[in-house]
Structures are given as C-alpha cells and as structure tokens.
Write a structure and sequence with these properties.
mainly alpha; 9 helices; 0% strand
Length: 274
C-alpha cells in the first residue's frame, strides 16, 4: 500500500517537476534582466506575471490551455498519442519520462526505507536530482534555488543521522564543494578556460551534505566515467564538436542517486579491491 501511494504521488510530483524544469530557467532569466536594468539605473522591462503557477500550462504551438483530463501523468500522454488535442503538434516524450522517473524512484524509496524520515529524505533528494539533471541538460544552469536549499536540507536531515552522522555531512558538504572548485581552478590556470560551472560545485556539496564525505570518491568516479563515455560517444557517433560544452550536472545527479541507494555496498566493494 505504501509503495502504491508513493508511486501515485511521485507521478503527480513528476508532472509538477516538468513545470519546474521548463519555467524555472525562464524565471531566472527574467529576474536577471530586471536586476541588470536596476544596476544600470533604468526601469526594469515590463513583464507579464510568470512563475510556477501562473499562467496555466498551454501548448507552446497553438496556445491551447491544458485541461485537467489532459494533465494526468503518463495516461494523458498515451491517450493523446503524444500530440496536442487541438493542433496535433507532437508533445515531447520527456514529459512522461520525468513523471515515470519521479514515480519509480518514489516507489523504490518507499520499498527500500519504509515509512519514516529516510523515505521522506530520499524522496526530496531524488526529485531534486531529476529537476536539476533536466534543467542542466536544457540550459547549463544548476539553479541556486534548488541546490542551496538541498544542501541545507541535507544537513538538517542528518542532525538525526538519517543517512550519515552530522560530522560526516558537514565535511561532505565542504569537501564536495572544494573538490570541484580545485579542479575548476587547476584547469583554468592550465588552459585559461573554464572547465565547469559553479553550480556543479554546489551540487556535489549538496550530495556530500546528504550522504557524507565517504561517498564523494564514488560519486566523482561514477559521474566522470559516465560523462566521459557519453562525451566520447557524442563526438564519435553524433559528430559533437570537441569544443562544444557538455553539462556535468546530469552525471553528478545520476551518481548521487546511485550513491543514495547503493553507495555503502559499492564503496565497500571498491575499497575491498585495494
């Protein structure tokens, strides 16, 4: 019963995550334009109200407002054949994918941890990883509005040693940030170019705050391996230019989820090799 409820609730959260993934970067850009105008001593450009609630979701091609029956996670996409009910424009398959990921991870967290703080924390962590991964894929942004509250939430959860003890969580947050910060500056001093963004530092710090410093080598190793494999595949098979940047956030997010659910046995196995 708990797993079923978690899956259904996760599907609904996944529908909301699609809104966050699409709108949050636009909200950030709108805020940046207003702040730039204010710093320049000019009037901020007029802008219609735009947030995670207003305006209602609509087809980007014809403007058709999405009705409640057209917004049922996964089921509506299947019923509509992946197309807008009015103009028949294709709907991205990403929408049901995000919903399925949010629901599936929620169900697994409920089965793995059972009712309690660990399940709640796992849900928050997993849903944040989904949102950050897809936002970074689209825009190369890892919004502070998600990464920083996630970091503090991890420390608060671990006041009660939910995933690790508080000392390990604090060290994990600091070490996670400093690890990628050091790589960033080493690469910049060596090449004169920026190899990654500051959002990556904050995301790894948040993962360290939730899971502790001991999982950080595993997270860095997994994310680097997957990122390198995908990058090489894009260059070889998709003719992706070597100088075209690839977001690192999605690989950190995937590695963080692996570490959340299977970090301890993987780390133990990794250390046993030596």
């Amino acid at each position: 019963m708990l797993v079923t409820i978690a899956v259904l609730f996760g599907l609904m959260v996944g529908s909301f995550l699609n809104v966050v993934i699409h709108r949050l970067p636009k909200m950030m850009e709108q805020q940046w334009r207003a702040e730039s105008a204010e710093l320049a001593g000019a009037e901020p450009p007029p802008a219609a109200q735009y947030n995670l609630v207003v305006p209602r979701s609509a087809c980007p091609k014809c403007g058709h407002r999405i009705a409640a029956l057209e917004n049922i996670p996964i089921a509506s996409y299947i019923a509509l054949g992946g197309k807008c009910s009015q103009c028949k424009a294709p709907i991205s398959a990403r929408y049901p994918v995000v919903e399925a990921l949010a629901g599936g991870l929620a169900g697994y967290a409920a089965w793995r941890y059972g009712p309690g703080a660990a399940m709640l924390g796992a849900l928050i962590f997993a849903w944040a990883m989904i949102a950050l991964a897809f936002i970074d894929l689209d825009t190369f942004y890892l919004p502070d509005g998600i990464t920083l509250p996630l970091l503090w939430a991890g420390l608060l959860f671990n006041l009660g040693a939910v995933f690790t003890d508080l000392r390990s969580a604090v060290i994990g947050a600091a070490a996670g940030y400093l690890a990628l910060w050091s790589v960033y500056w080493a690469y910049k001093l060596a090449t004169g170019k920026e190899g990654m963004g500051y959002g990556d530092f904050k995301l790894l710090a948040a993962i360290g705050a939730w899971l502790g410093w001991k999982v950080l080598p595993l997270v860095i190793l997994l994310s680097s391996f997957v990122g390198a494999a995908v990058g090489i595949g894009l260059i070889v098979f998709a003719r992706h230019g070597r100088n075209v940047p690839i977001p690192f956030g999605p690989y950190l997010a995937v590695a963080g989820l692996i570490a959340l659910f299977w970090g301890e046995p993987l780390t133990r196995h990794y250390l046993d090799l030596f």
